[in-house]
Design brief:
TIM Barrel, alpha/beta, 14 strands, six-stranded parallel sheet, single chain
């Protein structure tokens, strides 16, 4: 695999992120400067049935009530622009108190409510990679990505073993918001290490897939991938892929989040191989931080070096330069000028709407017949 060059702006944040959440000391709790949503309550959810089998095989949510799919919605607040940028948010722990790598459940509720009110709609990273951003016209996609499989991300509600997420876990917060706002999909991407979510791991992963979430690879032991040989890489990447695919028959992992964000000079087993009887193929990978991601239709799109935006209260970030790279700093910039910088859906997955004069920014593999210039052909 050819050497991957990390974008410069992302590299500035990688030095901060390289230590990982396990070794960064926690800061004192500080309130997030956004309105807090009301606490959610637990809701029962439908158990996985045979109706989900074909959906699991395709990596898509099943078409059953409460499956996680959004209902039809009115057009959103932005003008279509499918060459704009996509915020891919990076979250670790969801618990109290706040720290550099931890936001509170109230913080996550407020962030999701803010995204919803601002005109964002969630998709998985897999949706972005596969160019399946199927949200209503005028809305901007956002990816919520969660690293490490921390127990705070997914616990069962008391008495809801196997069916109902704890309303104060990340999954429960997202699921309850979807149930209360049917035009908000239950869509997020969870990048797991071994033994994710602190127990009952296989059942939780199967629940996520059955309800529309993505499960991705974060290596078995959260290792620096640049220090692995081919055999070690096969164990680290292939081991997690095989475990997930054995836990959810028919599902195939296709994306990865680099632990510590390092991605240069990786052996081929980082991307494909067979382990424990399961074949895996990684199509795209996420960096630790930096900036919004380019459109998958853009010639700037590099599937093996896709940047993310960390979610953290700025007061917990030590270096001033890195405070400009967290979501609370990026959000107003992305919403400025009526969302001019954003990827905005045209509501038709079969077409790619671009602004006049920007056709030259399209990737070479975008079919010309699918391109629509904004302001023409009824767009």
């Amino acid at each position: 695999m050819a050497q991957r060059i990390v974008p410069l702006v992302a590299a500035l944040a990688l030095t901060l992120a390289a230590c990982g959440p396990a070794v960064v000391p926690a800061a004192a709790p500080v309130a997030v400067a956004v309105p807090k949503a009301a606490p959610a309550t637990a809701h029962p959810t439908p158990a996985t049935t045979s109706a989900t089998t074909s959906a699991i095989a395709s990596g898509s949510p099943a078409a059953i009530p409460g499956s996680g799919k959004a209902v039809a919605a009115q057009p959103g607040p932005f003008a279509p622009n499918e060459l704009g940028e996509i915020p891919i948010l990076e979250i670790h722990n969801v618990a109290s108190p706040q720290s550099r790598w931890q936001i509170t459940p109230a913080d996550l509720r407020a962030i999701v409510a803010n995204l919803y009110a601002s005109g964002f709609r969630p998709v998985t990273f897999r949706d972005v990679v596969e160019r399946r951003i199927d949200i209503p016209r005028g809305y901007a996609p956002v990816v919520l990505s969660f690293d490490d499989g921390d127990p705070s991300q997914f616990q069962w509600a008391p008495g809801g073993q196997g069916t109902t997420p704890d309303p104060n876990s990340a999954v429960g917060i997202l699921w309850d918001f979807h149930l209360a706002h049917p035009d908000w999909s239950a869509a997020a991407s969870f990048y797991v290490n071994k033994n994710p979510f602190g127990g009952d791991s296989a059942a939780k992963v199967a629940w996520l897939v059955a309800h529309g979430f993505e499960v991705g690879d974060h290596t078995m032991d959260h290792v620096d991938m640049t220090k692995l040989n081919a055999a070690q890489m096969l164990f680290q990447v292939g081991g997690i892929a095989a475990w997930v695919q054995n836990a959810v028959p028919g599902y195939h992992i296709s994306t990865l989040a680099y632990p510590y964000g390092f991605s240069n000079n990786l052996p081929g087993t980082a991307w494909a191989g067979t382990y424990d009887g399961q074949t895996y193929h990684i199509r795209a990978a996420l960096l630790v931080a930096g900036n919004p991601a380019p459109s998958p239709y853009s010639r700037a799109w590099d599937p093996l070096a896709v940047p993310r935006i960390q979610v953290a209260d700025p007061s917990t970030v030590q270096r001033v330069v890195d405070r400009a790279l967290v979501w609370s700093a990026w959000e107003p910039r992305m919403l400025a000028h009526h969302g001019a910088a954003l990827y905005v859906s045209d509501g038709n997955p079969a077409t790619v709407t671009v602004r006049a004069g920007e056709q030259g920014q399209l990737a070479a593999n975008v079919p010309i017949a699918s391109v629509v210039v904004a302001g023409t052909a009824g767009k």
